[in-house]
Amino acid sequence: MTPAFLQRGIAAGILSALIVIGTGPAAQAQSQRSTQPSTRSTPAKPAPAAKPAAKPAPTVRTNAAKPTGAAAAGVAAGAAATAARPAQAATGPGGASLLTSYGDWGVYTAQTGRSKICYALSQPKDRLPKNLTRDPAYLFVSFRPAENVRNEVALVLGFTAKENGPAEAAVGNASYALVTKTANAWLKNPAEEGQAIATMARSGSLTVKTQSARGSSLTDRYSLNGFGKALEHARKECAS
Predict the structure, then answer these.
(1) What is the torsional sign of CA 13, 100, 134, 173?
(2) pLDDT at residue 18 greater than cutoff 70
(3) How confident is the model at residue 96 (pLDDT cuts 50, 70, 90)?
(4) Hey, what CATH topology would domain 2-237 get?
(5) Spatial contact of 169 and 199, defined as CB atoms under 8 Å apart
(6) What separation in angstroms does the CA of 155 have from each of 132, 137, 185, 220?
(7) Going along 75-223, which residue ranges are E strands?
(8) Where are the domains of the chain?
(9) Cα separation values, 67 from 26, 58, 60, 160, 237, Å
């Protein structure tokens, strides 16, 4: 049981990183973590060339700058938000892309090494308490055929969760215990994923309740409008 638990934790982190890879300018932020000093010094020398280059693509430069100093999960969430708006622009050097959207859900694919990953992703519609500042949150269901993984439910919470704190996802008449690790979460019992997916496909919303490292009780409500179609599209993308 322990190896499976650790594998799911690592998978959630990998998928969070892949969201960054698939969002154009935000992808550069991840690759620059270990090379930021050289990245900053390089454009500083040819100052005349940098100025005219900024005119045709000011938006790209602005988006790339925002996630550079954020935490890993925060960067991933913010980058996915940027990509989710213009579907045609969500292509990155890592090979990931936003294929299409269904209702409140987007369909993404990414290539990491020899492995293809496909997932359906959405943002919460409501977040409580409303006056509490936190990073964007995301719910996604992924497929990784190279690892024989299907229907893996995971979340980017947008904040650091309390270790061993209460966490659950409620959908329809069912509730599922979540296990959290830093700013990520996934279903505690992998055997429940199939049932959870089926319930999500016929329900209108999913509510996630967690507790932050500071002890605050937080609630995120996700719309499931378009979830079924997005999930099926993601599944077909990774069927081959």
Answers:
(1) negative
(2) no
(3) low
(4) Immunoglobulin-like (2.60.40)
(5) no
(6) 19, 7, 5, 11
(7) 97-102, 105-112, 115-122, 124-128, 138-144, 149-156, 168-171, 174-181, 184-187, 205-211, 217-223
(8) 2-237
(9) 7, 16, 12, 17, 28
Helix residue ranges, H only, the chain: 2-21, 25-31, 36-44, 47-54, 58-65, 72-84, 193-201, 227-237
Average pLDDT of span 117-137? 95
Rg (CA), the chain: 18
- 190/142 Cα distance (integer angstroms): 13
- The C-alpha atoms of residue 73 and residue 181 are separated, in whole angstroms, by 11
User: Is the pTM value of this prediction over 0.70?
Assistant: no
- Pairwise CA distance, residues 197 & 34, whole Å: 38
State the Cα–Cα distance between residues 46 and 73, nearest whole angstrom: 33
Phi then psi for 68, rounded to 5 degrees?
Answer: -60, -45
State the burial class of residue 88 (Cβ atoms within 10 Å of its Cβ: 0-12, 13-18, 19+): exposed
